[in-house]
Amino acid sequence: MEKIQILQLGGQDWNELYTLPENVVLHHIEACEKTAGQSYDLVFLDRTPLDGEIMPLYRLTKAYTLFVTQQVILERGAAWLYKSRKGRRIEESDIQNFLLHETANYFPIPYGEKFGFSNLAISQNFSGSIRWNGNHSVCLQGDFGRELGQIAYWRNNIPVFSGQCIDLWLEYSKSPELSISLSVTQFVKGSVSEVQQTWEFTEKELDQVVQLDNRMEEGPIFVSLRACGQGELQITALHDRYSRRGHGYFLPGGERYVSSEREELFCYFDPGDMKPPLNIYFSGYKTREGFEGYNMMRNMGCPFLLVAEARLEGGSFYMGSGEYEQMIGDAIRKYMAELDFGPEQVIFSGLSMGTFGALYYGCDIRPHAMILGKPLASIGNVAANEKWFRPGGFPTSLDVLQYVCGDTDAEAVERLNEKFWSKFDAADWSRSKMIVSYMIEDDYDEAGYTALLSHLKSNGAQLYGKGMHGRHNDSTSAIVSWFLNQYSRVLAEDFGRREIK
Question: What percentage of the chain's residues is helix, strand, coil (to nearest 5)?
């Protein structure tokens, strides 16, 4: 695992004062002048930075990773740095404990995934009915026995390293008469029978993310679901992620929202320099869970918000129940309010699946601009194209159609399309501009750009488009290049910011 890099500014070198874990490297400096080619996972200030050190420290420090001691006076530039980097005070008496026990939670490379849905197996002891709902879920109905017993398990064990903590989150629903628990067994590395330790999580504990904090040696874990009673049990997904033990999801400071149906939304907010605009970026389709576009958005220097989800195989286009969609809108407004920004100071953006999130929730906010690469608007058509136009190219689109509309027939296709277009047509785009790069022979949503053009009827609305030949997943690098160039142009022309390098 990569070592955790710490920057410490102050007169006394903490390497001489404190004991550090083996995986931590602390770089002590008495003055901060240079920033090129350096990246740190944690920054500690043990004296008040000088005016000329504020911007170098700002560039070196990631949000939520700045800690200042009592030696630091938070005035003027230091107060601005503390606020923009979401800093926290640390008492001198707590420094040693933090270095020994908390630094491990600021590891540089996050990771999250689902246990493979194809690896989910149903116990042979279950004699009730079994119904598989695409790659979304499996529904079990019948008698599960009088005592808790294994009802399902996941093949292909995953490794857990020594000293590592793993977050587990189970998506499921069940009849009130049923009781469940989650059993986890860790084997000794290299063995298929020697058990190292076990965890058992009750139904009540499963209301929250549960943690596997491995204080023993590295070894793979086997997970099974136990149940008893009579009724219906729907198993949707089991997620595992590298845990930061309460310091954020995926990234330090990453926030998690969850609906009453156990569906998750993730947001990462960086205040940047706290000047307009707020750049909001919706992650695209991906099977690896986490945020997308962090380095890209941070390089712009503006406040930014990353939005991500982890439903279905690689995302469900940010659509769901009224509660789930309200959760996304409320989160966006919360971060706008923290900055005291209005819609005219916000940019929505995304690539592929992320364009739908930007367009769909842009209808509510009506931001200054939307910067989109490979737009997808008629998601019903995306699913319908799987049969004739793009066989086997994006089967998750059929899961989205089934999940949102409850069917995959022609009527469901139209209802899913209408879900977006009715909202888009009702919005006032007179103060917004849309900047779109699209694939001319797109095999996902072949009329994505032209449909936007025909539906954009508000007086004063602006639409810029650049078409490139190819199917949806062709010329991605060219799409991204144009996407970044347009971001740079809007930031420079509309907000007086420097061009992105």
Answer: 30, 30, 40
